[in-house]
Each structure stands twice: as structure tokens, then as C-alpha cells.
Amino acid sequence: MTIHDPRMQLNPKQQEAVEHRDGPLLILAGAGSGKTRVLVERIVRLMQTGGVNPWNIMAVTFTNKAAKEMKERVAQSMGQRANDLWMATFHSFCLRLLRRHAEVLNYHTHFTIYDDLDQRSLIKKILKDMQLSDTVYKPASIQYHINKAKNDGIKAEDFPSGGDFFLKKVGAIFAEYQKHLILNQAMDFGDLIVNALHLFGKSPEILSKYQNQFQHILVDEYQDTNKSQYALIRLLADKWKNVCVVGDDDQSIYKFRGAEIRNILDFQRDYPQAKVIRLEQNYRSTQNILNASNAVIRGNTERMGKELWTQNGQGECIRMFGGQTDHDEAEFVCSSIMSHREKYRLGDMAIFYRTNAQSRILEDSLRKHKIPYRIFGGIKFYDRAEIKDMMSYLKTLVNPSNTISLKRILNTPARGIGKTTVERIDAAADRESACFWDVISSVSDPRWALELNTGTMTKIEDFVKLIARLNQARQEIPLDDFLTFLYEQTGYWQMLTAEKTIEAQSRQENLTEFTNVLDDYLHENEEGTLESFLDQISLASDTDKMDDNTDFVNLMTVHLAKGLEYPVVFLVGLEEGLFPHVRSFDKPEDIQEERRLCYVGMTRAKELLHISFVNERKLFGSTQYQIASRFLDEIPEKHVTMMHDFGYQARGAAPVHKGPSWSSTASYPQTRKQSIPKHETQIDYQYSQAEQPCRQGSRVRHAVFGEGKIILIEGGNSDQAKVTIEFGRGIRKKLSLKHANLVFVR
DNA sequence: GCCCGGTCGATTTTT
DNA sequence: TCGACCGGGC
Question: Is the CB of A620 under 7 A from strand C?
Fold first, then answer.
């Protein structure tokens, strides 16, 4: 986020946004236009001269990082008073309400938050209970449907099947899933929002209390809100209608997780009296970068319209590299990085890619050139097994009804409580409408009719005693010592020590890091309890602590790059099928989202933007022949310097191999493919009867499987060519192009 | 429990 | 191509 000198005057538009007093306000804040500053100053102003109490102001963001930054910046002006603001992420805001009013929804106040792994486990359990095959009903797919419904504010009982058998079943699973969440006294992420809505639906008194309280509501990144979040804001703002939303329709890139771009596009329809302010002056990039970015985003039809400009000067042209292979691209990036090293720190440079799979080849090159880098995304700290195990202990201590966590730790480390035992306990719990914990905490009670041998009984009793001992201990010993106590009492630490592997050692290191996380938390929150720590962790993510004071080249997906900025940016893999991704080819609105993503990537760059694409890329083990992204056609040539003249103009025409006309300071790879295969997109295969070329994304019809989409072509233009085609819901076939007799449609 | 081999799938991800 | 995951066998 751009933090330009706070002593600097606000520009007239920013000023207007800060000064607007009452009524709905939409701030269309372009990339790098100083929107955080506007939000902060607006809040400060409301408090300072507007006579609004901090507790009457609610400000919501999407990430903890954004909430924290805003809080700190308000505190710089307002000191302690900033603590009374309701400033949080959507999820922690809702959590606060739900903890306070849990009983209204038949929850107790210490309910557990399920992350998506917990959610997945519960779904699997339900599939088992309902005797549904998890190959037909893939847990991931069920999870997607459930989350989507929650994002869209659809209840299980209203789940639309449209007569579809599969979806009907999904609805039934969904209903069962919700039932089990209550049994487990747990809520998933979606529930936090949805249940807040239910709470208001159930209790008009509570609703009106908060409606009265929040005289001013501010929403950051409004283009990322989903339907449920939209409904929540709408409801809360209903009394005062002082709702100020900040966002950028051109940076809406989270449709796949429920973001509803219509929320921002339709703001004026929802609030006809709304004032709209555009922040178009950019403080981040050069005019060249902005012109190119503006040109790309102009290709979208559904947008509010915005043109970024700057006083930063023209700057350098965008450096465009067209290479032969993905390896060449990586080499281009590395040699450029090395040539920039004199002027820039490594930490000032970043590489953005569309898909995580692209990072590998880049990493190989970076390592080869001994360029230190760090990579964002991937395995998350809190998703590591050892951290999840400890979290499960802690969650179980706070809420033993939570069977998912309980089962995870029951036999971790191994205590000889096996699968059969668990199944018998499950059966008993079901039979007696009790929860798992009820059974094991009185395991010898004849009521359960458990046919367990005495050895197993003792093992279970020992486990129950362990939990009791831990619960006792957490009252008695200081929280910062409790984790270590936990590691030892459970035997977990000893288990890792006994393993004597490097992996086990690194797990121990992670556990040590986990105690540091708790220590930090306790330092920052004097009143911190185990419960509040769990909340914090459950709603935390690794990206919250992306600090930029390290001297490593930064690697991340374009999605993760949103909100960040770097002096030097490499945007790689600008090729059809990759960026825009094949999966977006079907729907114009998906292509538009890809274009926004491209725009987000480009506008991260402050001074130097590099864009690259190649002709051949290894994908899923085989070579794909690529053509330059359509987005590149949209960038006016005058903003571009070609670093390599090969391929750029090749879209739609067979590329002419001229060899590298540009080569960097570093050694350029000498090995080249002997023959350049005829371009994939140009295959007009004799067995295909259509004029349309056979290419990734093409729609085809097969006599047996029906209509589908080509997702992969292997073997190029040869008799051995194989195409992988997706026919409707996940059915994929790999067919020989020669024999499949495909008919190209559309 | 644990290891091995086969199979399947592979866009993006916060909370 | 490569990793995750599952089921079978010990």
C-alpha cells in the first residue's frame, strides 16, 4: 500500500472523500491512489471534528493485515481512542457478535471455528454416515458447493438442485453437515457471516441495537464482498445509511471464492442518493506503466470506468520478453535481476505468476544463479500437521463437543486406540444421541454397551485423564508455559525426539515457533486467554505477516500480489491458456476477470515492469506450445521495449524463429530444440473436419462422450497426438487425435 | 500401524 | 511430471 508523505496535502478528490459527512459514499479507488490514507483520515475526521464516538464507527476489511495497518494509522492520530473503534475483518467482526450472542443460535459461547481442513473432515464423516461414495461425492466438490451456498446466503433447506440428482444429494449432505456443526458446537468460516445474519434475523432487538450503534460504516475492498457480506452491511447500515465503501471494480479478482463484482457496480442502484468519488491520481507507478495498464483494462466492458494518471513522470518502457522455452524465461528473469542488483535491493523485486506450478522452474534458475528468494503461498504454517495437532488439543480443551478435533488427537501420538474402537464409540454415541466426548468420558458406563476389552478401556480412561489434567493445568500455570507443558504431557514432543529424523526435528522447530506465536500474542494482548488466542489463530493467515524488510526476491501468484507494490516487477507466463487461463475461455466474464488480474499484476510495479511469454512450456509433464496472451495485443507498442523480437507478433500466425536477438549479461542457454514444432494452435489436423484449429480450449464433439473441451494437447502435430478432453462434470478422457473423430463445434 | 505401489488430478485463496 | 491420497498387505 502506498504510504506517501502524510504531511503532503490530500488531492482534491481525496479531500472530498475525507470531508463527505453523511449519506452513502462510494470511493472508487484506483490502484495506488492512496485509499488507505483516505479511509484513515476519514475516520480520524469523523472522530475529531464530526463528534462521532469511536464505538459508533465500524470499519471492515478482508485481511487482518489491512485491519491492523488501518488501526495503527488511526492510532497515530487518535492514540488510545482508536481502540474503541470497531475495526476488524468481516470474520472477526462477526465472531465478536456471535460469541456475545451465541445462545440466540443455540450455541455456547466457546464454540469452535472450523478451518477448511476441519470442514473437509466433517464432510467426509457425513459421507460415511450417509453411506455415500466419496469418489462420486468428492469431499472437495461438496465443500465447494457448501461454501458457495454460504457465500451466496443460501440455507441448506433452500439449496437449489434444479432437479439435478447430484445437487439434490449435495443439499442433503449440506443439511446434515449443518446439523453436525451444531452437535460439534462449531462454525465454519462461512457460518461466521451467515450466522451473524441469522442472529439478526432471529433477534430484532439485537439487530436494532447494532443498527443504532454503527452510525458510520466503512468497508474496504468492497469489490471483494460476497452476497452474504453485502447483506450484512446493508442490514447494519439500514438505520443511518452512512455507509462508505471503498473499492476498485477493476481489481475484483476473487469471483471464485464468492466475490460479487455486482456489489460495487450496483452500489448506486442500491443507494440512489450515493455520492461517487473517483480517485484516479496514482502515487505509485510511472505514466508508462499506467498507460499500458489502462489500455489493458479498457478491454473490459462491465466496469465503472477509470483512467489512472500520475505526476511521477513517464518512466521507462515496459520490457517485454518473448522466449522459446519456459527455461529461457526463467533465465531472462534471473539475468535481469542480476543486472538490476546495483540499483535495487533484491527485496524491491518481485515475480508474479498466474499458477503456483510456474514457480518451480523459476526457483531452479534462481537457485542456480544463487539469487536469494522467498516464495509466498504454498504450505501454510497453521496447516502443518504438528501445528494442527496442537491446535486440536487446544480446541478440544476449550470445547470437547468438537469431535473433529477430539478424534484427531485421540490417538496422536499413538496410544493404541485404533479404528475399531473409534467406530464402536461412534456407534454408541449415535445410538444414544450423545457426543463422542460423552461416551469416552464415562467409557465404562454400561449405557454405552461398548464391547471393549479392559486394556482398551484403560487406554481411553488414561486419555480422558490426560485431558482433565491439561484442563486443570491451564487454570494453574501461566499460559506462556502451557504449550510446552502440553507438548510434554501428551508425549508429542518425545514422539518426535524418538523419530530421530530431520523431518521430526523440523516439526519440533515449528512447535517452538508456535510457542513464540503465543508469546508474541500475550505480549500484544495483556488480557489474552487461550480462547482468544485460538480465535486469533483460527482467523489468521501467513500472508498477514508479509514483511518487506528482507532482502529476498519475492515470488507469488498475481492474486497474492494484490495490495502490494514493488519497484521492479516481473509478470511471467503471459500466454493464452495460462494467462488468461484455459478455464476462463468459456465465459466472457471469466476472461474479464483474468484481464483484471493482469491489470492488478501490472499496477503493482512502481518503476520497472517486465512482461514475458514463451513458445514452449512444460505443463503436466509434456510440452505445450503457447502463443502470446491476447492481453499483450492490448498494450500500445509505444510503451514497450522488446527484449527479444521472437514471437510477440506471432499470435495467429506461425512464429518465425529468428533466434535470440537480445541476450542478457548472464550466460544464455545454448541448447535449443533442433526443430521448432509447428505451432500447436495452427494444427489443422486432417482428421478434424472443422475449419477451426484444434487448440487448448476448443470445443469438440465426440460420438460417444458428447461435447467437451480440449484441456491438453500432447504430441503436437503428429500421428501420436493425444488430446485430453473434459466432457461435462469432471469426466476426462485422453484420446488419440487421429482416431477420435472429433468434430469441432462453434 | 506402516510402508508400498497404484491411481488420479493439476487455477487462483482469505477467513 | 509430480505429488497427494488411498487401499492392500505385512
Answer: yes
